[in-house]
Design a protein that fits this description.
The complex is a heterodimer of chains A (132) and B (330). Chain A has 132 residues and is mainly alpha-helical. Chain A has helices spanning 4-18, 20-24, 40-43, 54-74, 92-99, 107-114; strands spanning 79-81, 87-89. Chain B has 330 residues and is mainly alpha-helical. The relative contact order of chain B is 0.15. Classes of the chains: A mainly alpha (132), B mainly alpha (330). Chain A binds chain B through residues 1-4, 7, 10-11, 14-15, 18-22, 24-26, 28, 30, 32-33, 55, 58-60, 62-63, 65-66, 69, 110, 112-119, and chain B through 39, 42-43, 46-47, 50-51, 54-58, 144-151, 155-156, 159, 166, 168-171, 226-231, 233-234, 236-237, 240-241, 249, 277, 280.
Chain lengths: 132, 330
Amino acid sequence: MYNGGKILLGIIVFVLFAAFPFYNNIGKVSAKPEPKLDTPVIQQLAEKKCVESKEFMKAEHMQLLNDWRDSAIREGKRIYVNSEGKEFRISLQNTCMNCHSNKKEFCDKCHNYAAVKPYCWTCHIEPKEKKS
Amino acid sequence: MKILFPFVAVIALVLLAMVGVSGGSLHFLFGVIIPYAAVFIFIIGVIYRVLKWAKSPVPFCITTTCGQQKSLPWIKQNKLENPSSTLHVVGRMAMEVFLFRSLFRNLKGEMKDSSRLVYGSDKWLWLAGIAFHYSFLIVLLRHIRLFAEPTPFFLHLLETFDGFLQIGVPRFFMTGVVLLSAVTFLFLRRIYIPQVRYISLSADYFPLFLIIGIATTGMLMRYFLKTDIVGVKELAMGLVSFNPVIPKGLGVIFYIHLLFVSTLFAYFPFSKLVHMGGVFLSPTRNLLGNSREFRHVNPWNYPVKVHTYEEYEEDFRDKMKMAEIPVEKE
């Protein structure tokens, strides 16, 4: 082998980059997030149901929020009718966060896990919570 | 044919994932076994290729003569183009790796007035190349959020800049579109320029189609078809902590994306894509331009048996004297 030292150095750097996710996780346990639903409003619900089905909300809640925003601000329609015909007032703060008033235990649980930081809260007001 | 074959191969991958996941419920195969195998082949394969390159001797320094070599003191040396110290070489290498210096020199020859051949600068290849590579890098780095918990500090910064247009929810990331447009340009360039099409092989089209496929499925998942990102992260974290799990509810589109990526990784060491490692080993970039300063001896020169004049004279002195041939030693 020619230039053995440099070649070896290069290979080590490559392996350090390529295998980063593997050794970075040694000895760490990461549980998947369990968003908490035990808010006063949700506990009083007869049927513990979100605006849409759970599967839909999991994957598409950001899309739904975007549609809500467009329909409220651009079209002036502030009533949302879900797939079951139930009506909701379109509002991030007063509808979503009314039921999910535990933002830190709910929204943020997933968002921290998935490393997303929605910038909505620079304008919209977060529900008041006890510091945990 | 050279285009059709790789295209069919990519379509076959899509069908494979579709049939395997929704038809055969081979989630474990597509979600765990194939990704593991791909990463293994990738790492071992790249090391193998580099070691193989390192075995071939580089006998003589190759000076690419687009800069003045170090010479007499009053002749100005072009240190970056014709380096004479390791520091200069590092400079030239950095320009190559980070800025694609050689591509920047790309020229285009054209026939003007059907009789004059004119050369002009052609930066489009460089521009698309650099846009492609850097956006691919950022897209790759953004994926760390699925493989690390807690996520590294730079991730949020990266997403803030990438999504600073704040279009839509989920936020629109610029690099995705730049990546797709650049790779599409690189593909179209191969078809439209006759000379480039002539030298293009299946091995050139396949990675392009594969990357187009990866970017398309990725963006489809983010903006249109939606996938449960928390589930995806569960799967990814399971893989990297050697504790594989298959979360329920991940769509076929995710498995197509994953199969594309696995194919790219596994194919990498055997394709032209190894230029990732190869660029560091290009003799025209990493050797000193000191052919005048030092004598370079071919390392595989074997000892040649020589018979010097002195020995010859020693052997034949008497006969030479008799024939009145002058000799050096009496």
